[in-house]
């Protein structure tokens, strides 16, 4: 619901005015933080995944005990849920620590891909994902087209993707599996551009508060991290070679 602000109230509100050049500089510096946090989290996730995959004891403990795996999955859901809602309320240390903890737990659960796919296909799919992410994120950052109208369409696509995946747990339909895979790729490719453009606006949250700026950067990194990981897993279905 939109709020109406009377003219006399608008006149009493402080207005921040900056030049286009300063705005571009602020956004650029902010997005560098976002990409830095995201890259660090991806590196941590990948390192943990490879470490766990190299240990037969760890693999057996995690994947031969359904309670352990479900517990890790629940921790993932809770961490990302709390981080999404509380990132700007916590201290910088707590926000960044929770994000890194989420990256570690994700690495543990994602270690299963090393059991299902060859190392070469995982590596090549990662580079395909990185290239796709780079192109779409640059598009989202530099385009003058308003991508906000994509929001409802992408949300419906995500909901449909989740429902299709849940239904296919029972149907085991190969056709539905591949339809969901290709639709998912399209949705997350578009989300990368959409989220990047949206995150540019977060750059102005911390103009007078460095802590807020850093927390907003971590929150932005989480959003793009999730886009990257989901796109990677979907592309792995297409390009991955099973063992």
UniProtKB/TrEMBL annotation:
<comment type="similarity">
    <text>Belongs to the BI1 family.</text>
</comment>
<dbReference type="InterPro" id="IPR006214">
    <property type="entry name" value="Bax_inhibitor_1-related"/>
</dbReference>
<feature type="transmembrane region" description="Helical">
    <location>
        <begin position="153"/>
        <end position="171"/>
    </location>
</feature>
<feature type="transmembrane region" description="Helical">
    <location>
        <begin position="216"/>
        <end position="239"/>
    </location>
</feature>
<dbReference type="Pfam" id="PF01027">
    <property type="entry name" value="Bax1-I"/>
</dbReference>
<protein>
    <submittedName>
        <fullName>Bax inhibitor-1/YccA family protein</fullName>
    </submittedName>
</protein>
<feature type="transmembrane region" description="Helical">
    <location>
        <begin position="177"/>
        <end position="195"/>
    </location>
</feature>
<feature type="transmembrane region" description="Helical">
    <location>
        <begin position="34"/>
        <end position="55"/>
    </location>
</feature>
<feature type="transmembrane region" description="Helical">
    <location>
        <begin position="90"/>
        <end position="116"/>
    </location>
</feature>
<keyword id="KW-0472">Membrane</keyword>
<feature type="transmembrane region" description="Helical">
    <location>
        <begin position="122"/>
        <end position="141"/>
    </location>
</feature>
<feature type="transmembrane region" description="Helical">
    <location>
        <begin position="61"/>
        <end position="83"/>
    </location>
</feature>
<keyword id="KW-0812">Transmembrane</keyword>
<keyword id="KW-1133">Transmembrane helix</keyword>
């Amino acid at each position: 619901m939109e709020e109406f602000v009377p003219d006399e109230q608008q006149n009493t509100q402080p207005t921040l005015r900056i030049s286009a050049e300063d705005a571009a500089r602020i956004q650029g510096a902010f997005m560098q933080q976002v990409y830095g946090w995201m890259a660090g989290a991806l590196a941590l996730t990948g390192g943990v995944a490879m470490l766990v995959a190299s240990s037969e004891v760890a693999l057996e403990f995690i994947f031969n005990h359904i309670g352990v795996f479900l517990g890790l999955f629940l921790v993932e859901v809770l961490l990302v849920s709390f981080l999404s809602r509380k990132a700007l309320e916590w201290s910088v240390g707590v926000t960044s620590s929770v994000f890194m903890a989420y990256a570690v737990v994700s690495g543990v659960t994602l270690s299963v891909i090393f059991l299902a796919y060859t190392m070469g296909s995982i590596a090549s799919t990662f580079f395909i994902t990185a290239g796709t992410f780079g192109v779409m994120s640059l598009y989202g950052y530099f385009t003058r087209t308003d991508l906000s109208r994509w929001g409802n369409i992408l949300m419906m696509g995500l909901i449909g993707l989740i429902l299709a995946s849940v239904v296919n747990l029972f149907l085991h339909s190969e056709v539905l599996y591949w339809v969901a895979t290709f639709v998912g790729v399209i949705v997350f490719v578009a989300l990368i551009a959409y989220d990047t453009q949206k995150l540019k606006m977060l750059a102005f949250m911390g103009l007078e508060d460095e802590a807020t700026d850093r927390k907003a950067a971590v929150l932005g990194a989480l959003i793009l991290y999730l886009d990257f990981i989901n796109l990677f897993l979907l592309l792995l279905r297409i390009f991955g070679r099973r063992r």
